[in-house]
Specification:
The chain is mostly helical and about 210 residues long. The protein is about 80% helix and about 0% strand. The chain contains seven helices and no strands. Helix 2 packs antiparallel against helix 3, helix 4 (about 85-90) runs antiparallel to helix 5 (about 100-140) and helix 5 (about 100-140) runs parallel beside helix 7 (about 175-210). The chain is elongated.
Amino acid sequence: MQDLKHMTVAQLCDLTASDAPVPGGGSVSALAGAFAAALTGMVAKLTQGKEKYALVEEEMRSIDQEAEALRLRLLEDIQRDSLSFDGYMKALRLPKGTEEEIKTRQEAMQAGLKEACTVPLSAAKDAHAVLKLAVATVARGNLNTYSDALVGAMLARTAILGAVSNVRINLGGIKDEAFRAEMTTACDRLEKEAHQLEREAITAAAARGDA
């Protein structure tokens, strides 16, 4: 498979629209997170070096650096998410003629499902970090670009919820109760904070629009 992040926007969109099983919602969520980070970094850059925003110069420089690191990680997650289900699909094709083969196959399936949960959860956590940065750029970034920062915040929130939904659907087949509980708790927290942070971004944008 071609590395998805190196496709053109049109190629990736065409492939997503096809009957190919990947890329799916998890990869598109990672893409949304990467664009959220890109917009956040852009606003931070457009705030730096301006006397009007001297008080937030260091903050914006730090946000720019953090957003760039997150953008690059989320770009990698576009491909990682599409590959994360491979282990499970390969496990399904393992022989099941003997009790030992059945046991090996079931263990491989469980390992594959866990990987298919771990990868999108990692992307959700990165998108959560982006969302916090985006809120700061909405509130204190260049006034002329607060709407761009708000789009970044909304995209980051969508990336979190999309990635979490992928975790949840794969948890259904996992028998490890401790793993399921840990993942469910993490997903619940990320969802709750995603909604809260988006509300903060919208409130901050409204205040700046009235300024």
